[in-house]
Amino acid sequence: MTIKDITNSIEELAPLNYAEGFDNVGLLVGDYKTEVSGVLVTLDTLENVVEEAIEKKCNLIVSFHPIVFSGLKKINGNNYVERVIIKAIKHDIAIYSMHTALDNSINGVNAKICDVLGLKNKHILIPQKNTIKKLLTYVPIENAERLRKAMFAKGAGKIGKYDNCSFNVEGFGTYRGGEDSNPTIGTKGVLHTEKEIIIGVIFEKHLEGAILKAMFDNHPYEEVAYEITTIENKHQQIGMGMIAEFEEEMQEVDFLNFVKNTLHTDCIRHSKLTGKPIKKVAVLGGSGSFAIENAKNAGADAFISADFKYHEFYKAENQILITDVGHYESEQFTKNLLVDYLTKKFTNFAIILSDKITNPIYYI
């Protein structure tokens, strides 16, 4: 079992293509070809987590947050980031992070928060833009079915609850091969007209490489004509935050106490009570103040997230109950999500949940 085997499975859940542009995801330390002795899953990679990996004979740390976020010009051990990197390299321990790729997953961070709170009927709060692409290619009629099936097998043509979706138009293609050509249909130097079908399919952007390979492998032409465009449609299963509902509404104070106890947080900061019961709730793990208006527009009675600044609580405007549960507290169940996922994928392999509490914030 190599690191690449493990990370390939993680990327089925959280494709790195959907991480935010500011993020630093993937294998941060190590070599994908390394054989894995054990996997330690954590929210953050600190020095004591690396020591735990050494003690438990795990040479791969799967960390939700990336230890290397911005560029490092020196690695001298002058701060905790540099010390973690030095210790990991010294003991041949790899570090992998998926961070906002998992935030944007339909079954990721925010789905886990909803499950822990018992929220139902989950939907993405802010669908990600520029995630869907369209491919057009031109193929002889007798080869069209084989080509379609090959691309469908790699994930092309999926629209919501439907698959094998395509649009096909018949027409005539013309070409003439040059001196160095080797046409599979027609004769070089001679203008050829062929009955063709234009096949159009859409696909999620992280599948582009696999779909193009399937197209090239199953297309009869020496030179394949195709075009790819990014379309404006928003992907309803990729994006930040979630909107969901309790089965039964509850009063605001009861809601706050329920969230406090369920998320095991010592402190909840919240906006002024609205006097309205809570049923529809928006959640966004980590720093979520940018999504206040999205939560309001979605009709949420409350918004659970973290790291709100003083003036951002005013944005509630008596329309919504802003609920700051703490950054760590909102994401704490992410490592359980990853352990459960990897344990099902690798049933006979050591996937270990870190027992280190990495929350840097304390309350008195």
Task: Provide an overview of this structure.
With 364 residues, this protein is an alpha/beta fold. Helices cover 27% and strands 26% of the residues. The protein has a six-stranded mixed β-sheet with strand order 5-10-12-13-14-11. A five-stranded mixed β-sheet has the order 1-4-3-2-15, with helices on both faces. Strands 7-8-6-9 form a four-stranded antiparallel β-sheet, with helices on one face. The protein is globular. The model has no long low-confidence stretch (mean pLDDT 96).
Layout of secondary structure:
Blueprint: H1 3-13, E1 26-29, E2 39-42, H2 47-55, E3 60-63, H3 80-90, E4 94-97, H4 99-103, H5 109-117, E5 120-127, E6 132-140, H6 144-153, E7 167-175, E8 192-204, H7 208-218, E9 226-230, E10 239-250, H8 252-262, E11 269-270, E12 278-287, H9 292-297, E13 302-306, E14 321-324, H10 327-331, H11 334-345, E15 351-353
Parallel strand pairs: 2-3, 2-15, 3-4, 12-13, 13-14
Antiparallel strand pairs: 1-4, 5-10, 6-8, 6-9, 7-8, 10-12, 11-14
Short description, anyone?
It is built from 11 helices and 15 strands. By secondary structure, the chain is of the alpha/beta class. The protein is globular.
Q: Oligomeric form of this entry?
A: single chain
Largest sheet: 6 strands, mixed
Strand order of the largest sheet: 5-10-12-13-14-11
The stretches of 5 or more residues where confidence is low (pLDDT under 50) are: none
Based on DSSP secondary structure assignment, what is the total number of beta strands?
15
Rg calculated over all Cα atoms: 25 Å
Helix proportion:
25-40%
Shape: globular
Task: Tell me what portion of residues adopts beta-strand conformation.
Answer: 25-35%
Number of helices: 11
What is the terminal-to-terminal distance? 45 Å
Structural class: alpha/beta
Mean pLDDT: 96
Spell the H/E element sequence: HEEHEHEHHEEHEEHEEHEEHEEHHE
